[in-house]
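ok trying this again, last paste got cut off
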Amino acid sequence: MSHASLTEWLFVGDPPGRPVPESEPRASARGRARRPSRALAPKGLGGSAAEQGAVRLCSTALLALFIPACSPPDDATAAGDARDRSEAGADESGIDTPEGEGDGADAPADLPADLPADVPAEAVEAEAEAEADAEAPDDAGDEGTDAACPVVPPPAPVSPLPIPGESPFGRHEPTTADGFEDEYLYDATDYLKIGVRRGWGGSIVFFGLAGSTGPGTNPTNTIDANDTGREVQVAFYDPDRLMQNCAWNASCRTTPSACPSSITYLGWDPVQGGNRCNVGSGVDSVDFTDGALRVLTTPLFWNPDWDRTDCDSSGCSDPGRRSRRSDTRVTQTLRFVATHVVQLEYAVENLAATDHAATAQEMPTMYTANGNGGPDLWRVFDSEGRQVLVDTPAGGDGFFYEDFDSPGGWVAMQDDGSTYGVGIYYENRLTTFQAWQLRSLPFNNVRARFSFGIPASAVVRARAYLVLGSYATIAGQVAWLDARLAPFGSLDAPAADAAVSGTVPVSGWALDNKGVTSVELVIDGAATVPLAYGASRPDVCRVWPGYAGCDAVGFSGTLDASLLTPCGHLVEVRATDADGNVRVIAAARVFAGS
């Protein structure tokens, strides 16, 4: 959304002494530890004193044999078991229960001879049967506590991210400079940093070298932080409410607006940074956890007069209208995944019961430095290294634009010599882009032509990546990233801790930047069941639009639970993509019936 002596900082290619980490996601393996059997102390001893003594002596001897196996593990042993689960390959499934053991099916052969007169033998028999039956994991809430079943704890949550963040991660630095409160995130080496502005909805106002000039911005900044409408941020549109004067009754596709063709008169248009009055959106919250900087904001409407029936544009001078909150909420999460690469994750939530039809959205858009106190990153390059000339008049405000293709799903903005700049890669690998410029302002902008709708009371998600460096550096970093993004997804059925028997339906979905090639169900880390991939899941692609294969991204199949022991079992969904990345995308514990 537009309105309106760096030589010592520049570098060509990868900076010396700062190799790019070559880490990649690996499929997780889960092990399980067996819980020891529990020995029950004798109850209700009867008979003569001599007989009782003999029984007690025998019981004591038997208990002496069982006690070592029954003692609970100490803390060190428990910690070792936890490490085994996360680090070792799992190849153990449940063991069949031996006949007549632990199932409580048969009554004891001999009852005590000296029962009190008021206690019927049937009551003692029932108590003994209940004690024995309690040992069997015969319901979904029992993890399996007898000798027949291994302990199967609930699996750890599977990360929804296709690539992990840096580990160890870099530091977080809140700053106050030049009248702004900003939050900075550093890479693990303290070489690069990225900054967001609290007053402007958490929009990204800095991406460059950490430098030695202290907190805040510096001359290596690749982002245009001129006003609330630029930066790197998200903005949304509705084709039925595109312009003032027709947005009020959602008639813009059938009855064009009578207002001038200018950004002053845009219709429904929540903008993360703020509005045309240069009032910032502010933030609802900021959080830094485990290397991720998360911002929650309720964007302002770009045009406070957007739903007027006329073309009055005086809203910026009206205290009651100049800061109108939109009916959306945005969550933005930033994390470094490599020294030069920052992941941007977005979720936009529609807070209203109004559907917004599909149209080109900015999720996100990138405004680059224009020479005002930093580099002038005006040269637009596609993923093949071709420069894109931005010279098609847009009318209205005098801007120029250009639609173009970039087959690799990314573009870069560079200085005159292509020695420094910033690139943006969209995880869904969109290949159609649009660039905007007005050299007299100046401003430089590029974004993917990313079309999707925002259904009523729904959430739409997307991820993109910013990459810093010369064109050659960016191309190398994107190639590394593009090849290592692994599948992500969900297991819809069976549900966690479900009791399963017979033929069990299995279903869910999986997405990948280049497409999923196979999906399988893994039982207890060993046995595998192939699953069919390609079921229609338009619901998934409404939440994650633009991914390869949409809408055919669902998987399905069946699990024959009759082949499983009547115990707890771990089921995992393992997906493989076109680059050969293999990843567990979901896991659940289930309980098989006898």
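PB: full thing came through this time. Residues 1-124, 126-145 have pLDDT under 50 and may be disordered.
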